[in-house]
Write a structure and sequence with these properties.
The chain is an alpha/beta fold. The protein contains 15 helices and 15 strands. It binds zinc ion (ZN).
Length: 442
């Protein structure tokens, strides 16, 4: 392996930016020379990258993706979707359990880890799914048996679907409580998909419309809010670390904010599609804008941006969920599967806002604020801590896991040029400012 010198880039840190020269050798950051007065230290390497005017981040983390393998390889594989991640500056992903078979047993987790061994570019971690008591017994067995510790080391938490989504993963009654208790005992974060099944079922029954925007009415904001109330109560009762997945409503955000003020171990993530898209986009997207929880009205997006700004939102996670275009274009549109790809576009969309621009072709009535350091917090520091991923942070002597960002590069998003197997994007034709290239993960 050759040595690499990255000269003059700006390392984005929570404590402030630092302009530096980085020497990487044998996959290890050997030297970081901070340029305080603009002077250079003469470092030599086999290969040199001139990073003047560019930003250096640790490889970004996307803590919510669906890689679709095994069982749904027509939508995506670990190989194709990891490639998509890396091309978007993401070098660590946390894969959800609703594959076929679902990741609800030690054997299923072992099989996923085996497939992931062939994917070098991206570090894949796995959530353990729970829909029945037996799954919790499997999880406890894995954490109790020292011979299974290497498997447990790849498990980043438990995913609990409070309502069913793709893969029919609705948790059986009573199992939810048990899951909160077991997660508290094993000190694993419990990631909850918060939508209330009873409210959704009732609304679906009453629905008489067949246009795609009815999806947002059937899965109304109240459904998410009620589920969050339930989840927070359970977390409080058992002392569980609750992580609310893809938070999408103003009230939901307030509930999480209040729980944090009350001192509970509660964190949350927001998905780019809930920040950049709204119910107004159904007209152009059709079923390509169908996901769970659904698109909301713009006032909810505005609230989520406020949550990003004031720190109530801990993580940005794409909920990357590819489906083939054929699957998405069935009629009636309401029967199309829920989920959109997003792992490759998340960082560019955020970089665009950090550059002071808005990527959506339709202007916004409000101007969201985001700094490059916020992107690091949302897409590296917080998910790294919350899910105990132990990724290194651009320090001397640590493994190189680096992303170089060209903050001023303008380009257009086209599904055909992205690397997900599905070949489409809800952000088709959007102009973005900022591109992330992975320098390396060794
Ligand atoms: Zn998901």
């Amino acid at each position: 392996m050759t040595s690499l010198l990255i000269r003059g880039g700006t390392i984005v840190r929570p404590t402030g930016d630092e302009r530096a020269d980085l020497l990487v050798d044998e996959g290890i950051i050997r030297e970081i020379f901070i340029r305080t007065t603009g002077q250079q230290k003469l470092l030599a390497a086999d290969q040199t990258i001139d990073a003047n005017g560019q930003l250096l981040f640790p490889g970004f983390i996307d803590c919510h993706v669906h890689l679709r393998e095994p069982g749904m390889e027509q939508k995506g594989t670990m190989e194709t979707e990891s490639q998509s991640a890396v091309c978007g500056g993401v070098t660590t992903v946390c894969d959800m359990p609703n594959t076929n078979p679902p990741t609800v047993s030690v054997a299923a987790l072992r099989e996923k880890i085996r497939i992931a061994e062939n994917v070098a570019a991206c570090d894949i971690r796995f959530f353990f799914g729970v829909t029945q008591s037996e799954h919790l017994q499997e999880l406890q067995r894995m954490y109790a048996d020292p011979s299974l510790s290497s498997l447990a080391g790849r498990c980043c938490g438990v995913k609990l679907y409070i309502d069913h989504s793709t893969g029919n993963q609705k948790a059986a009654q009573g199992v939810a409580e048990e899951a909160f208790r077991v997660c508290a005992d094993t000190r694993l974060p419990l990631v909850a998909h918060c939508e209330d099944p009873v409210l959704n079922a009732r609304a679906a029954k009453l629905n008489t419309r067949d246009d795609i925007s009815a999806h947002s009415q059937i899965r109304a904001p109240e459904s998410e809010q009620r589920a969050i109330v339930t989840a927070v109560e359970l977390a409080k009762r058992f002392g569980t670390h609750l992580h609310v997945a893809h938070l999408s409503t103003r009230r939901g955000l307030e509930l999480v904010g209040q729980a944090k003020k009350d001192g509970l171990a509660i964190t949350c993530e927001v998905a780019p599609h809930h920040l950049f898209l709204s119910t107004e986009d159904y007209a152009t997207l059709g079923a390509l804008g169908k996901m769970n929880p659904p698109l909301r009205t713009p006032e909810h997006s505005e609230a989520l941006w406020e949550g990003v700004e004031n720190g109530t939102v801990d993580c940005m996670a794409s909920d990357h969920a590819p489906h083939t275009l054929e699957e998405k274009q069935v009629l009636p549109a309401l029967t199309a599967p829920s989920g959109v790809p997003g792992v490759e576009t998340m960082i560019p969309l955020l970089l665009t806002v950090a550059a002071g621009r808005w990527p959506h072709p339709r202007p916004r009535p409000f101007q969201p604020k985001l700094k490059y350091a916020d992107i690091r917090r949302l897409c590296f520091d917080n998910p790294n801590r919350i899910f105990s991923l132990r990724q290194t942070m651009i320090e001397q002597g640590t493994a190189a896991n680096l992303v170089l960002v060209h903050p001023g590069e303008e380009w257009e998003i086209h599904g055909a040029e992205l690397h997900s197997k599905c070949g489409w994007t809800p952000y088709e034709g959007w102009r973005v400012t900022g591109r992330a290239t992975v320098v390396g993960r060794w």
